[in-house]
Specification:
By secondary structure, the chain is α+β, with helices and mostly antiparallel strands. The protein is built from two helices and seven strands; from the N terminus they run H-H-E-E-E-E-E-E-E. Strands 1, 2, 3, 4, 5, 6 and 7 form a seven-stranded antiparallel sheet that branches. The protein is elongated and about 45 Å long.
């Protein structure tokens, strides 16, 4: 009986580091996926947002059809307050981009609006589609 109790105790001690080291980090830094498309795929914006304490990390791929341009527009929110904006452009092809945005206040960035726009020639940018993302997902 004492041997069985000792074996159970040893097994618990050996297994404990694996239980503690499991996905606690993954739960604290969620990843949100977004995918925007217009038409039959002439314009696309696909990517992820990784949510840290006061920072978000953006990684995406932006595509525009031949002889046209596409713009990815990101708006960063802290509650109802707009705290930053970033844009990336590609013309006649596909291009990846990645960057971080920080808001050094308690709670950090709480929401990211992701928009896809297009431009034909020298005309003004036209909004195509968009989504709003939080730590829980995009809608």
């Amino acid at each position: 009986m004492k041997t069985l109790a000792a074996a159970v105790t040893i097994a618990a001690v050996v297994a404990t580091p694996f239980l503690v080291a499991s996905p606690a980090g993954a739960a604290s830094n969620p990843r949100t996926h977004y995918s925007l498309s217009y038409g039959t795929g002439e314009y696309t914006l696909k990517g992820n947002i990784i949510w840290y304490n006061r920072t978000v990390q953006i990684g995406a791929s932006l595509k525009a059809n031949e002889d046209n341009c596409a713009k990815a527009r990101y708006k960063f929110w802290h509650g109802r307050r707009l705290v930053g904006q970033a844009e990336r452009v590609v013309c006649s092809g596909t291009k990846g981009h990645g960057f971080r945005r920080q808001y050094d206040q308690r709670g950090g960035i709480t929401e990211v609006t992701v928009d896809l726009l297009q431009q034909n020639g020298r005309r003004a940018w036209t909004y195509l589609t968009g989504t709003t993302c939080t730590r829980s997902g995009c809608r």
